[in-house]
Amino acid sequence: MERLIRTSSFSYTLIAAAPALAAGDAAGEHDLLYRVVNFVLLIAVLVYFTRKPLQQFFADRRHQIQDELARAAELRQRAEERHSKWQRRLAELETELESIRAASRARAERERQEILEAANAAAERIKAAARAAIDQELRRASDQLREEASDLAVELAAEMLREQVTAQDRDRLLDEFIERVERPEAEGR
Q: Cα–Cα–Cα angle for 61, 67, 71, nearest 5°?
């Protein structure tokens, strides 16, 4: 690099001095020569004193840029990993939401079936209780009807007996009843 700088500064000096040399002016040549030598010395001094600091600066700057690029690549890698992680989580969340929905539907269907079964069982119990109540009412009505029929039969029989039994029949029945009552007492003695 140093050689490139020397060559370019020498070339620049020659190019700058060429028009003055072509003019042939001796005083101008001398003055131009001092200026060229002065300029070359300035460039040489600048190159000599700033070469190492410039090289160090550019090397440091290169390292700094490389470090920043490495950090940026690392940050990008981390960001991509996070992005893919969140994408996976999002996909898992969708799957989990769908499984929760399916479980909720299944649970709702199961509860609906249980409610229907409980309602059917309650309806059957109510029907059985109603049948039992009807049977009980029928028995009670039947018993009441029998009782009324027997009472009516007794009344009818009593009415018939009153109409058909005479005073002689009553006396005879009374005598027979007394005999039956006395007989067991006589046998027991």
A: 145
pTM of the model: 0.36
9: CB partners within 8 A, 6+ apart: 39, 40, 43, 44, 47
Cβ atoms of 13 and 39 closer than 8 Å? yes
- pLDDT tens digits for range 94-109: 888 889 999 999 999 9
Q: Around Cβ 32, how many Cβ atoms within 10 Å? A: 19
Provide the 10 A C-beta neighbour count for residue 17: 16
Q: How far apart are CA 180 and CA 178, in angstroms?
A: 5
Residue 99 token pair: 């499984």
CA atoms within 13 Å, Cβ hemisphere of 89: 6
What DSSP element (H or E) covers 90? Answer: helix 26-164
Distance linking the first and last C-alpha atoms of the chain: 166
- Single-letter amino acid, residue 74: E
Determine the 3-state secondary structure of 166 from DSSP. Answer: coil
Distance from C-alpha of 139 to C-alpha of 145, rounded to nearest angstrom:
9
